[in-house]
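Appendix B. Raw example, untouched.
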Amino acid sequence: MVTTADPRSNVQAPPWWRRARHGFAHFWPRAAAVYVPDLWIRLPQSVGDDRVAALTFDDGPTDAGTPRLLDLLNRHQVRATFFLSGENVRRFPGRAREIVAAGHSLGNHFREHLDCWSSSPRSVIREVTEGSRIIEDVTGVSPAWCRPPFGRLTHAIVKWSRVHRQQIVLWDVFPADYLEHTTPADLASVLHRKLKHRSIVCLHDNAVSRVKTPEMLRQVLPGLRDTGWKFVALPEKPEGLDARSRAA
């Protein structure tokens, strides 16, 4: 498929289907919350204050990106939530433990990055169960949170999460840091335009985002904090909170 060059860089813009998929990722969590009322796409109202949001990072840990993110978050005294891939935890167990040692929360991003919509329920249950087991075995922390790859919920995931008391969390702010052609300025623009009280921001810790995402946060966090924004990790015991996720 032919792609068109992005005039701002030497990186090619993604094909139309990847742009369409990213657009769908903005719409999908709100639609899913209509049918799964205990799904979180924003923080509960009990967080209080008037400028509180959560930063979350999918796909890690990685050997290059995770240290950059941890250093950046530490410098700005921000706690976040990392949705870890079981296979990456196996590859980089030390990085996973560093996330815990730095005081961040852990979420379950399954064993591998499978597409739950094109996988059998048995495969989906195996992947989410294995992801959770690996994270706990390596870090000693039982994940309190669950986020399916691509945010693609199924009935099997919803049922599993309720039985195992892992709150499903999607997002309401989704900068495209996983697309090759985006820049830190692009990501910052989305964050400034979309961020609101109780937002859950979905970013990434992977090969594509390893430089641009920490750089974007380096640029925007000081200004946001100067204007009163507070960034928090998802709490460790979500069952003690109001689990309604409506975007109201």
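End of appendix B.
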